[in-house]
Amino acid sequence: MKFFCKTMLVIFIQVLGFSCNSQTKPENEMSLNGEWDIIFDDTNQGISEDWYKNDVYEKQNFRKINVPSCWEEYNKNYEGVGFYRKKFNVPKSWEGKIIELNFDAVNYKSEFWLNDQVVGFHEGGYTPFSFRVDNLAKMGEENTLVIRVISPIILTDKYIDGLGRQEVPMWRGAITGGVWQPVSIKVKGTIGLKDVFIEPKIDTNTAVFNIEIENTEITTEQVEVTVNILSKNREVIASKKGNIESFPGMNALNWNISIPNATYWSPNNPFLYKAEVTIKKDGEVSDQWSHKFGMREFTVVNDQFHLNGKSIYLKAAFFEGLYPTKLGYPDSREMAIKEIKLAKEAGFNMIRPWRKPAPKMWLDLCDEMGVLTVGSLVVECMHRPISTPRLPFVVENELRKTILSNRNRTCIVQWELFNEINRPILAQMLNSMSVLARELDPTRMILDESGGWGEGANIFLPFERTSKKFNDIHHYSGSQVDEKEFDGYLATAQTNKKKEALGLQGVKSYGKNVVPGMMSYISELGYGSTPDLISNIKEFESKGNPIVAPSIYHKELNDGYITALKKVGFDEIYPNVQDFYLEQQKMHGIANKRMIEATRLNDVVKGYCVHALVGGDWVIGAGLLDLWRNPKTLVYDMTMEANQEQITPIRILPRNVYGEKGAQLEVYGVSELPNEHVTVSVKIISENGNEVFNKVFDKIFKNGISTFLMDQLNTNNWKGAHIVQVEVKNVSGKVISNNSQSFDVFSKEQLTIPKAKIAVMDFDNKLTSFLDEKGIEFIPFRPDLDKNIPVLVGITAKKDAKYRASVESLRRYAQEGGYVVFFEVLGEQMGGPEDPIILKDTATEVLPLGAQMFGKWPTRGGWAAKSHVVTNHPVFKGLPTEMIMHGVYENVHPDVALAKQEGNYIAGLIGYDHFPNKDRMRRHFIGPGEVWWAADVMETPFGNGKMLLSTLRIIEFLDKDPVAEKLLYNIINYISK
């Protein structure tokens, strides 16, 4: 049974009114791009006042607008109704022929009149459509086209023609209102091409041409159909011609054409053929169509992604598709080329456009430049559109139109239908929409839901009608990829037996609804950093648009950072805010690199997608490139290193080493290439430049994952910062891989036990047990304690009533002149991924229980930069200071912080609101929220005494990490003075 159902195709095309998607403008097509008129109908009065009539329109207060463009380029943040008008001449020679108006995309609902006569309407903001207008057009005369457009309603409470706020599909980068993609008018004969769908089949080296011919006459006509396939040098290498009887209405052809010595399309060789389809009636051309296509197949074989019969490890880049001035559409073809080129140069073989079908021009470039692409739909964008009775219609409408309009794209190898489903109605639609997608396009792999939040992900392989379970995983480590986080990647999707073999028993793995042992793909990982806002702002000033959101929020974010740094005194460390941005980018690069290395060491995971190629809006920090497509150098370079075909991940366990205990050195090889003989050099260099370890050995760099070195290091005489350097050379002496990893060794001399008189209030005995073990004398706290004796307060269970009751006595002790150190602050928890965060400046009088406490999400950062700065203070004596926490601090790094807390900041957080407070659940185009500051370690006067509050994980890592011990001793020495 032929999979491509002729009857269904006819129905789909009749319902949608689709026209062929050609990549070039033929001679019979005329562009209508350029200057148009527009009236912004803010009160929605135009339809009742007949503005669609030219003589009425002429009396209104209209202005000029360029098409294509998003209308917020002309009217700041405008949403609602707009009336467009365009006057143009139709050639006299088009008389008696079929004329079509073609629109690449109009957002969102649009109605059309030509010469005061109704044409039709369209719903959907990101896909092409067309109308037949030959009976409405005036040949050889001026014609007037009027379009009424209703944009997505996002920020206001407008309700227009049954469409309310956030009820329609919308992309989060911009409103993207109006006629934002190209417009053209085309002429053809009375018998024309309605649709052509090419199915490449590399197993037979054939291309199946599914051709829909529309006969607009009332009689059966004989026509000649010709299909030519041309090579790059324009030679016809395959052809088929036939005479057919064309009945009134739709006629379907399915021609299988062999391609001799077929060359396959791939990222390394993006070879494209050109298909030309021509219909002739009575020897005259009635219609013609052309499109470039490639011979390729993307599927899964034996739990491996395969391209053209060969395994491929997917290395994808998440892509928002936001641009600095044109917003939803590339500012220029050159800018689009630049971003795709930079993605490939960074080692990515796939781009995942996110929740917005990419424009034709951009997909043309992906075809030509050779990058695999995910076909994305503008549905399920972080709870949007909101749930209304229209939601099922909206989903199906977008799915149909997106697939039908883009299924000849060579670069698109997979359809992604949903993302992180969170509503029952969408979960219920998973199977039906997957089946519909399969009917519309039998040739591609289909992923029903990225993230697998609903019921776990499923994939449909090409030409398969039943699905295959699949682990599609989203996980963001945030700012610190410590040992626990790294192990989590290694454990992800592994069976318990495999975990035990790897020494990962009890390690929590990542993902939702994950099936152990099943092929997996981590489709979202990454961290974030602020772009160089100073340089970006200069670019906006010289070539940007001051009223579009990116121009505004780049400046606001920069001002916010400057204010926040000054507020807590960190401007003394970063007097030039650009230095702060560059250091953030270094942290971003380190985090990305470690996440990728850990992922590639997991043999069940067959690829990953880094969030993101380009930043923008409320994910402004996630990009490897800024919005102007400038690489954020350190992030870009380190991500590129981890993307290479051959890498050598390094682990030092533990990261911070007790000198007398030693450490485990592990060096691995990960290769996508065939086995080859190599020479491996492993060195360890101390902070004073001495070489303390050196091994050189021959090895086979195997395809897949292999172990290069496992060695127990004797660090008894080592001290301070060290770096492992690995270099791999092939038999010709060429360096094919290198890597480095830092670690620190702490000698007994660095961990001298303090001698001071202290008191302790403990609740779980972790602090007191450690003090006893180290022989540090202390006395239990009591309310009448001598005020000259400082008090250390241990950690406790979050709801421990005893702890909370004890806080008042500790507060009084400080008020009366004592010094109290809190190693935990149980204030008001704020800031889960979905919770609104409304902050106020918090006075010291409410400490500690009255503090506003950021939870792990805003403190660690997810995909947004959350920078924890360490000052030069006695608390951090003997440790790196005046820097953003990383490396030596990865274990004690805080999971919580005191938000907007008054006091003297010894270490603290600078970050921004992921989801701006006032529009937190709207999450669209208005950019990041306010810049936050929060304390990790702070000292403050309290009555006649003082408090020192720390959210560092010091107590949790005593006896596990020498840095925790060092910090505890520093604090005791500091407060005892």
UniProtKB/TrEMBL annotation:
The processes (GO biological process) annotated in the record are:
carbohydrate metabolic process
The family database entries (Gene3D superfamilies) matched by this protein are listed as: Galactose-binding domain-like (2.60.120.260), Glycosidases (3.20.20.80), Immunoglobulins (2.60.40.10)
So which domain of life are we looking at?
A: Bacteria
Q: Where is the Glycoside hydrolase family 2 catalytic domain?
A: 300-480
The yes or no answer to whether the keyword Hydrolase is present is: yes
Q: Which residues form a coiled coil?
A: none
Any transmembrane segments, and where? none
Q: Which GO terms describe its molecular function?
A: hydrolase activity, hydrolyzing O-glycosyl compounds
Q: Which family does it belong to?
A: Belongs to the glycosyl hydrolase 2 family.
What is this protein's name? Glycoside hydrolase family 2
Species of provenance: Seonamhaeicola maritimus
